[in-house]
Every structure is written in C-alpha cells, then in structure tokens.
Fold GNAT family N-acetyltransferase.
Amino acid sequence: MKKIIQQLKKVGVHVIENNFDIGLEFFHNGLDYSNEIDTLIDELITATEENGSKRILVECPATLLHRLSKSKERMRIVGERVIYTRKFSKQLDIKAPSHEIWSPSEPRALIFLSEVMGVEIKEAEKFLSSMKTELPSQVNRMFTVYIIDGEPVGLVFPHIEPDTNQEGRMFWIGVHPKHLGKGHGKALHRIGLSRLQKEFYAKSYLGATKKGNLPMRRIMQSNGCQQSENSMVSLEYIQ
C-alpha cells in the first residue's frame, strides 16, 4: 500500500492519511496523469480490501471525473465542493478579533469541541486523534477559540497543509449552537486567515465547502477569497 501511495504522490496526488481514512486530492495537474491515477486508486482500493478497513476519500475536479472510470465503478459520489483561494502578501495585514489558543489536551477543549460539533465526547476524541495523526507538528497550536466578552463562541483550526508550498488551510471551523445566526462565522474565519498569515507564515489559503453551503461561501467571499473555476467532486469507498 505504501508503494501505491508513493506512486500517487509522484503523479501529483496530495495524500492525507490518518488512523481512519486515506484522503486523495488532485487538481488541474491530474489531467496529464488521469489514467494512471485511476489505475492507482483502483489498486489502492484492492490493497485496502486485503490489508485493512480504512475508508478512501477522493477529491477531484468535476471536469476530470469522466476519466476515472475504474474509480467511479468502485466508489460512490458523496458530494460536490467549491474551492476558494486567497494569496497573502507582506503588505497585507489581516486584523483578527479576540481569540485564545487552547491546548487540545485540556478537558475544557474536548468538552467545547463536542458542544460545537454536536457530538459525543468519544467522537470529539476521534476527531482530535485524526488531527494529531495528520498534523503532529502543528496540532498543539491549532485549537483557536473565538472569544466575545470572555465567553468562547466558536472554533477554527488553522494549519499548513503538508507537502505544499506553505498553503494554509482550516482543518475545521464551527460556531457554538448557542451563538449561531449572529454573524460570527465571518469573524471566526478571519481569525483563521490572520493566524495563517502571521503565525503559520502561509503564502496562500485554500478553503472548500459544499456547493450548497451558501453561508460559508459568502463568508469566504466577504473575507477576500476568490472562487475557483472548477468545482471538486468527492468520492468515497468503504468496505
């Protein structure tokens, strides 16, 4: 399986792996190698069936989907996402609202995360575990809490995507249910952008959201992000 993953990386596929999933991403650079990528994904699925129970997730441009005949046959389409990007420059100074950095190992962090995500503590622990596996060198400075009048109202996890040219992303972002509908999403996203620029030294930002998630799309647009021409299709394989 490791050999297949290395071959995927050689043809421009970005691989994200944790204890539960193998994520594969490729953008325009997949055009020249689409047949090879399709074959390698097919081989990876077969290897997964033989060696374990990891889920495989694929993100590819909608315009390339017709070239992935083998992958389409063995995977199911689970959604379509829109990509937004923003370049950072030394002259740009993104102001961030009040926030704090919490350690993910603090009990209050786990409790707050479970409340914001609307899941049980065990699911929140699983989420943090996958984040630690994917981003071990960054995880302790990612847990960013938006604070209003001393009260935590939302969470964002900025980070640099491994194996990229300092591309900043947000692992997850969410407002606490008590504070939904109050316009806090824009400020929370802005905190993430500010930290990416000033503390993670990102050269650019890439964000993705479901095509139908109009509130998040408006947030990214209002914070200076530009929509990419091509949408991304999400495929999933589970044994």
About this structure: The two ends are 16 Å apart (CA to CA). The chain is about 35% helix and 30% strand. The chain has two domains: 1-82, 99-202.
